[in-house]
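Try this one yourself first.
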Protein backbone atom coordinates (compact mmCIF):
# COMPACT_ATOMS: atom_id res chain seq x y z
CA UNK A 1 0.00 0.00 0.00
CA UNK A 2 1.13 3.56 -0.71
CA UNK A 3 1.20 5.99 2.21
CA UNK A 4 -0.08 9.58 1.93
CA UNK A 5 0.98 12.08 4.57
CA UNK A 6 0.24 15.46 3.00
CA UNK A 7 -3.02 17.23 2.19
CA UNK A 8 -1.25 18.58 -0.91
CA UNK A 9 -0.96 15.10 -2.38
CA UNK A 10 -2.65 14.94 -5.82
CA UNK A 11 -4.82 12.01 -4.71
CA UNK A 12 -6.17 14.04 -1.78
CA UNK A 13 -6.86 17.00 -4.05
CA UNK A 14 -8.65 14.68 -6.48
CA UNK A 15 -10.99 13.35 -3.77
CA UNK A 16 -11.85 16.86 -2.61
CA UNK A 17 -12.56 17.95 -6.17
CA UNK A 18 -14.87 14.98 -6.77
CA UNK A 19 -17.33 16.40 -4.26
CA UNK A 20 -18.25 18.86 -7.03
CA UNK A 21 -20.47 17.75 -9.92
CA UNK A 22 -18.44 19.80 -12.40
CA UNK A 23 -15.30 17.80 -11.68
CA UNK A 24 -17.17 14.49 -11.68
CA UNK A 25 -18.51 15.35 -15.13
CA UNK A 26 -15.08 16.39 -16.40
CA UNK A 27 -13.26 13.30 -15.19
CA UNK A 28 -15.94 10.64 -15.41
CA UNK A 29 -15.09 9.66 -11.83
CA UNK A 30 -16.94 9.59 -8.51
CA UNK A 31 -16.25 8.20 -5.05
CA UNK A 32 -18.07 5.99 -2.57
CA UNK A 33 -17.48 5.54 1.17
CA UNK A 34 -17.94 2.79 3.71
CA UNK A 35 -16.97 -0.86 4.12
CA UNK A 36 -20.24 -2.27 2.82
CA UNK A 37 -20.30 0.03 -0.20
CA UNK A 38 -16.71 -0.79 -1.20
CA UNK A 39 -17.34 -4.51 -0.64
CA UNK A 40 -20.34 -4.30 -2.96
CA UNK A 41 -18.24 -2.60 -5.65
CA UNK A 42 -15.62 -5.35 -5.36
CA UNK A 43 -18.30 -8.05 -5.44
CA UNK A 44 -19.93 -6.59 -8.57
CA UNK A 45 -16.50 -6.18 -10.20
CA UNK A 46 -16.99 -2.43 -10.70
CA UNK A 47 -14.01 -0.67 -12.25
CA UNK A 48 -12.17 0.97 -9.32
CA UNK A 49 -9.48 3.59 -9.88
CA UNK A 50 -8.14 4.01 -6.34
CA UNK A 51 -8.98 3.05 -2.77
CA UNK A 52 -8.07 5.16 0.26
CA UNK A 53 -8.02 3.72 3.77
CA UNK A 54 -7.49 5.36 7.13
CA UNK A 55 -4.81 3.97 9.44
CA UNK A 56 -7.68 3.41 11.91
CA UNK A 57 -9.72 1.22 9.57
CA UNK A 58 -8.60 -1.99 11.30
CA UNK A 59 -10.22 -0.75 14.51
CA UNK A 60 -13.68 -0.59 12.89
CA UNK A 61 -16.02 -3.58 12.75
CA UNK A 62 -15.27 -5.33 9.47
CA UNK A 63 -12.15 -3.26 8.90
CA UNK A 64 -9.64 -6.08 9.20
CA UNK A 65 -11.66 -8.24 6.83
CA UNK A 66 -11.85 -5.60 4.10
CA UNK A 67 -8.12 -4.90 4.47
CA UNK A 68 -7.37 -8.61 3.96
CA UNK A 69 -9.68 -8.64 0.93
CA UNK A 70 -7.83 -5.68 -0.57
CA UNK A 71 -4.46 -7.31 0.02
CA UNK A 72 -5.62 -10.47 -1.75
CA UNK A 73 -7.58 -8.85 -4.59
CA UNK A 74 -4.87 -6.71 -6.24
CA UNK A 75 -7.72 -4.72 -7.81
CA UNK A 76 -6.20 -1.23 -7.94
CA UNK A 77 -3.93 1.28 -6.23
CA UNK A 78 -4.58 1.34 -2.47
CA UNK A 79 -3.45 4.31 -0.39
CA UNK A 80 -3.15 4.54 3.39
CA UNK A 81 -3.40 7.88 5.18
CA UNK A 82 -3.64 9.08 8.73
CA UNK A 83 -7.10 9.26 10.23
CA UNK A 84 -6.66 13.01 10.65
CA UNK A 85 -6.00 13.40 6.92
CA UNK A 86 -8.87 11.05 6.08
CA UNK A 87 -11.21 13.31 8.02
CA UNK A 88 -10.29 16.13 5.62
CA UNK A 89 -11.62 14.27 2.60
CA UNK A 90 -14.55 12.29 3.97
CA UNK A 91 -18.09 13.31 3.13
CA UNK A 92 -19.76 11.44 6.01
CA UNK A 93 -20.28 12.46 9.65
CA UNK A 94 -19.11 9.14 11.11
CA UNK A 95 -16.73 7.69 8.52
CA UNK A 96 -15.53 4.10 8.74
CA UNK A 97 -12.23 4.99 7.10
CA UNK A 98 -12.44 3.65 3.56
CA UNK A 99 -13.42 5.18 0.23
CA UNK A 100 -13.00 4.23 -3.40
CA UNK A 101 -12.75 6.26 -6.60
CA UNK A 102 -14.75 4.65 -9.39
CA UNK A 103 -15.30 5.21 -13.09
CA UNK A 104 -18.79 6.36 -14.05
CA UNK A 105 -20.65 3.95 -16.31
CA UNK A 106 -22.72 5.25 -19.20
CA UNK A 107 -25.71 3.02 -20.01
CA UNK A 108 -27.86 3.53 -23.10
CA UNK A 109 -31.59 2.93 -22.87
CA UNK A 110 -31.44 0.79 -26.01
CA UNK A 111 -29.21 -1.70 -24.22
CA UNK A 112 -31.70 -2.08 -21.36
CA UNK A 113 -34.96 -2.84 -23.17
CA UNK A 114 -36.32 -6.37 -22.72
CA UNK A 115 -39.64 -8.14 -23.42
CA UNK A 116 -41.17 -7.31 -20.00
CA UNK A 117 -40.14 -3.68 -19.61
CA UNK A 118 -40.79 -2.05 -16.24
CA UNK A 119 -39.17 1.38 -16.11
CA UNK A 120 -39.14 4.20 -13.62
CA UNK A 121 -38.76 7.70 -15.09
CA UNK A 122 -37.70 10.60 -12.86
CA UNK A 123 -38.67 14.05 -14.10
CA UNK A 124 -36.55 16.82 -12.50
CA UNK A 125 -36.25 15.10 -9.11
CA UNK A 126 -34.08 17.35 -6.92
CA UNK A 127 -33.61 15.88 -3.45
CA UNK A 128 -30.51 13.63 -3.10
CA UNK A 129 -32.12 11.52 -0.37
CA UNK A 130 -35.20 10.91 -2.49
CA UNK A 131 -33.12 10.01 -5.52
CA UNK A 132 -31.03 7.48 -3.62
CA UNK A 133 -34.02 5.94 -1.85
CA UNK A 134 -35.93 5.62 -5.12
CA UNK A 135 -33.00 3.86 -6.82
CA UNK A 136 -32.75 1.46 -3.89
CA UNK A 137 -36.50 0.76 -4.00
CA UNK A 138 -36.42 0.31 -7.78
CA UNK A 139 -33.67 -2.28 -7.33
CA UNK A 140 -35.77 -4.15 -4.75
CA UNK A 141 -38.93 -3.99 -6.91
CA UNK A 142 -37.23 -5.51 -9.95
CA UNK A 143 -37.38 -2.43 -12.15
CA UNK A 144 -35.75 -2.88 -15.58
CA UNK A 145 -34.04 0.51 -15.41
CA UNK A 146 -34.29 4.03 -14.00
CA UNK A 147 -34.38 6.91 -16.46
CA UNK A 148 -33.12 10.23 -15.10
CA UNK A 149 -34.03 13.48 -16.84
CA UNK A 150 -31.65 16.38 -17.44
CA UNK A 151 -33.12 18.41 -14.55
CA UNK A 152 -32.54 15.76 -11.87
CA UNK A 153 -30.00 15.87 -9.06
CA UNK A 154 -26.72 14.17 -10.00
CA UNK A 155 -26.90 10.42 -9.39
CA UNK A 156 -23.24 10.51 -8.33
CA UNK A 157 -23.82 13.12 -5.63
CA UNK A 158 -22.32 11.63 -2.41
CA UNK A 159 -25.67 11.98 -0.58
CA UNK A 160 -27.47 10.15 -3.38
CA UNK A 161 -24.87 7.38 -3.35
CA UNK A 162 -25.19 6.82 0.39
CA UNK A 163 -28.96 6.55 0.09
CA UNK A 164 -28.74 3.91 -2.65
CA UNK A 165 -26.99 1.52 -0.24
CA UNK A 166 -25.15 -0.06 -3.16
CA UNK A 167 -28.20 -0.50 -5.43
CA UNK A 168 -26.52 1.80 -7.95
CA UNK A 169 -24.43 -1.25 -8.92
CA UNK A 170 -27.46 -3.51 -9.44
CA UNK A 171 -29.84 -1.55 -11.65
CA UNK A 172 -29.22 0.33 -14.91
CA UNK A 173 -29.41 4.12 -14.57
CA UNK A 174 -29.96 5.83 -17.93
CA UNK A 175 -29.54 9.58 -18.38
CA UNK A 176 -31.89 11.37 -20.78
CA UNK A 177 -30.78 14.65 -22.32
CA UNK A 178 -34.26 15.12 -23.82
CA UNK A 179 -36.94 13.45 -21.69
CA UNK A 180 -39.80 14.09 -24.15
CA UNK A 181 -37.87 12.47 -26.96
CA UNK A 182 -37.02 9.52 -24.70
CA UNK A 183 -40.65 9.08 -23.67
CA UNK A 184 -41.81 9.24 -27.29
CA UNK A 185 -39.32 6.52 -28.19
CA UNK A 186 -40.63 4.38 -25.33
CA UNK A 187 -44.22 4.80 -26.50
CA UNK A 188 -43.16 3.75 -30.00
CA UNK A 189 -41.82 0.54 -28.46
CA UNK A 190 -45.19 -0.18 -26.89
CA UNK A 191 -44.31 0.93 -23.38
CA UNK A 192 -47.28 2.51 -21.61
CA UNK A 193 -46.45 5.70 -19.72
CA UNK A 194 -48.21 6.05 -16.35
CA UNK A 195 -47.47 9.32 -14.56
CA UNK A 196 -48.17 10.13 -10.92
CA UNK A 197 -50.33 13.26 -10.94
CA UNK A 198 -52.66 14.99 -8.47
CA UNK A 199 -55.20 15.39 -11.26
CA UNK A 200 -55.09 11.75 -12.28
CA UNK A 201 -58.40 10.29 -13.45
CA UNK A 202 -57.81 6.96 -11.69
CA UNK A 203 -56.37 5.79 -8.40
CA UNK A 204 -53.10 3.94 -8.92
CA UNK A 205 -54.58 0.59 -7.78
CA UNK A 206 -57.37 0.78 -10.38
CA UNK A 207 -55.09 0.34 -13.36
CA UNK A 208 -54.36 -2.97 -15.02
CA UNK A 209 -50.58 -2.93 -14.98
CA UNK A 210 -49.27 -5.17 -17.74
CA UNK A 211 -45.84 -5.79 -19.19
CA UNK A 212 -44.10 -2.85 -20.84
CA UNK A 213 -44.90 -0.03 -18.46
CA UNK A 214 -43.06 3.06 -17.28
CA UNK A 215 -43.94 4.80 -14.02
CA UNK A 216 -43.17 8.53 -14.08
CA UNK A 217 -42.52 10.49 -10.88
CA UNK A 218 -41.89 14.23 -10.89
CA UNK A 219 -40.27 17.05 -8.99
CA UNK A 220 -40.89 17.18 -5.23
CA UNK A 221 -42.48 20.65 -5.35
CA UNK A 222 -44.14 20.78 -8.76
CA UNK A 223 -44.70 17.18 -9.80
CA UNK A 224 -44.23 16.21 -13.43
CA UNK A 225 -44.04 18.94 -16.05
CA UNK A 226 -47.06 19.75 -18.21
CA UNK A 227 -45.24 18.50 -21.29
CA UNK A 228 -44.50 15.13 -19.65
CA UNK A 229 -48.09 14.90 -18.43
CA UNK A 230 -49.27 15.62 -21.95
CA UNK A 231 -47.29 12.78 -23.50
CA UNK A 232 -48.27 10.20 -20.86
CA UNK A 233 -50.85 7.49 -21.57
CA UNK A 234 -52.31 7.62 -18.06
CA UNK A 235 -52.29 10.10 -15.19
CA UNK A 236 -52.77 8.28 -11.89
CA UNK A 237 -53.27 9.62 -8.40
CA UNK A 238 -52.54 8.24 -4.97
CA UNK A 239 -55.66 8.78 -2.85
CA UNK A 240 -55.33 10.92 0.29
CA UNK A 241 -57.67 10.08 3.17
CA UNK A 242 -56.13 12.65 5.51
CA UNK A 243 -55.37 16.35 5.21
CA UNK A 244 -52.02 16.03 3.45
CA UNK A 245 -52.16 17.02 -0.20
CA UNK A 246 -49.26 14.89 -1.41
CA UNK A 247 -46.70 12.27 -0.48
CA UNK A 248 -42.93 12.40 -0.41
CA UNK A 249 -41.64 11.59 -3.89
CA UNK A 250 -39.78 8.47 -2.78
CA UNK A 251 -42.85 7.15 -0.95
CA UNK A 252 -45.06 7.78 -3.98
CA UNK A 253 -42.57 6.06 -6.27
CA UNK A 254 -42.36 3.11 -3.88
CA UNK A 255 -46.14 2.65 -3.79
CA UNK A 256 -46.41 2.71 -7.58
CA UNK A 257 -43.48 0.37 -8.16
CA UNK A 258 -44.70 -2.16 -5.64
CA UNK A 259 -48.20 -2.12 -7.08
CA UNK A 260 -46.67 -3.18 -10.39
CA UNK A 261 -44.63 -5.86 -8.61
CA UNK A 262 -47.68 -7.10 -6.66
CA UNK A 263 -49.73 -7.57 -9.82
CA UNK A 264 -46.86 -9.20 -11.66
CA UNK A 265 -46.40 -11.68 -8.83
CA UNK A 266 -50.09 -12.58 -9.09
CA UNK A 267 -49.49 -13.43 -12.74
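Now uncover the answer:
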Amino acid sequence: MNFISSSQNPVIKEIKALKEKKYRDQTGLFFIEGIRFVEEALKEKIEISKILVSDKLADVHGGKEILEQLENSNCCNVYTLTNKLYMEVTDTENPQGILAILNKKSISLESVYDNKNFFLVLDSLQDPGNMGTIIRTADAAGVTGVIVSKGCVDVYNPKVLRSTMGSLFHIPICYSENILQTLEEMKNKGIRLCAAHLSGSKNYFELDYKDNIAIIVGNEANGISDSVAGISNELVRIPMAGKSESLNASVAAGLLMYEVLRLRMKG
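Discussion: The chain has two domains: 2-103, 109-266. The mean pLDDT is 93.
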